[in-house]
Amino acid sequence: MLKKATSDSYRLLLAPATSITRTEIERITKIISDHPFPNHPIQPTLAKHVPLSSLSPPLVSEVLGRLFAAHSNGLKALEFFKYSLKTPESSPPTSDSFEKTLHILARMRYFDQAWALMAEMRKEYPFLLTSKSMSILLCKVAKFGSYEETLSAFKRMEKEIFRKKFGVDEFNVLLRAFCTEREMKEARSVFEKLHSRFNPDVKTMNILLLGFKEAGDVTATELFYHEMVKRGFEPNSVTYGVRIDGFCKKRNFGEALRLFEEMGRGKVEVTLQIVTTLIHGAGVVRNKMKARQLFDEIPERGLRHDCGAYNALMSTLMRCGDVSGAMVLMKEMEEKGVEPDSVTFHSVFIGMMKSKEFGFDGVCELYQKMKGRSLVPKTPTVVMLMKLFCQNGEVNLGLDLWKYMLEKGYCPHGHALELLTTALCARRRADDAFECSRQTVERGRCVSEPVLRMLETSLSSKGELEKLEELKSKMQKLHSFLPPPGTQLI
């Protein structure tokens, strides 16, 4: 839970929208996702269906958020962002839109385009260059590149992109890039090598502390905590939150509670994220009474229940086998105006699947409820539901889920396609399997070898191998637009 609390500023979340705006967001997202890429340029299509006068900066940001969550092709997102730049100067792009575009590109390893976009923004909209945009690109370089390449990227940003002398804030971004990838040996090396130049602050130490915790090494986390104190840094609520989360994940709930009590004695601010972390920790050790107590005490601490707190208690109840209690809690949540999110539904789906009381029928009912709310599930939920539907002989439900995702402008994960294709081909529905694969490729995503093999077997029995050749031809063209395996990172 603390990981979310300490990295929210580096994540791309779609803000709530009104129903009217949501309809327009979904319409534009679908236009972009459905566009046959890369066979035809996308900007003429946008000009025809999405007038520049209709594009407000918040709307652009919302659409890019949907494209990010939908794992849309990075070049499509880039073209949409560039199209939005044609709006009047009175409506400059927002940093959020730029950051989302940059993240989509870097995630797909379009590093040449990402660096070029950074350089263009430096020239046209320098105010968009923030530590967050720097972090987005640097984290992906650290993910896909080497230690040396990450340091070179840091230097390039200082000299060519930001063109200013970096300080502790940028140093923290560099450390976060290594810590996010759990490369703690490299993070420690950078710290020892550069700390004298950048004069670390308590945020620096908390980033490293979080890195050790995320690497799953409680001993290293505690050793670094003592080093932090020895260096003269005062622990704050983030420091305690990281340590509490580390102990919770290792099932040492007693030590986590001890630290929580220590916070109270030391008058360190107790945040909602820390209480939520403890509720999760209570669930890990199956202590639902303590979880409920912590949840009920939230208002007494001057805090308000949010979706995360409800999700934590719901997850605890599920772990303890109390599915009915979790359903009651979900109803209470809705009555109090706290909107369930994709995590809420994922937790309840898992609980129902394990429950004899609700089982498959309960999952189907909740699935329809989720659709009624126009809520789009995250990838793990989509794969889980697709597997459940297909294994229970309900391939039509699997196809319904696939179509629902496409209607919302999303292209489901490749694993979901493999599950659906397997089920469809097993039932001699090669045409439906081919159509799903074609939709995937036309949205800028390649299909896997297992899918191609299944299609080959099914289509050959019908004498329709020309369809497979058509699909392979589209994939070959798509490959020419995808970054090669040896893409330069800097």
UniProtKB/TrEMBL annotation:
Domain of life: Eukaryota
Keyword presence, Repeat: yes
Biological process (GO), any one: mRNA splicing, via spliceosome
Annotated Gene3D superfamilies: Tetratricopeptide repeat domain (1.25.40.10)
Chain segments annotated as coiled-coil in the UniProt record: none
Keyword check for Repeat: yes
Keywords, in A-Z order: Repeat
A Pfam family the protein falls into: PPR_2
PPR repeats: 201-235, 236-270, 306-340, 378-412
GO terms under cellular component: mitochondrion
Family the entry assigns: Belongs to the PPR family. P subfamily.
PANTHER family: MEMBRANE-ASSOCIATED SALT-INDUCIBLE PROTEIN-LIKE, PENTACOTRIPEPTIDE-REPEAT REGION OF PRORP DOMAIN-CONTAINING PROTEIN
Protein's name according to its UniProt entry: Pentacotripeptide-repeat region of PRORP domain-containing protein
Organism: Brassica oleracea var. oleracea
Lineage: Eukaryota, Viridiplantae, Streptophyta, Embryophyta, Tracheophyta
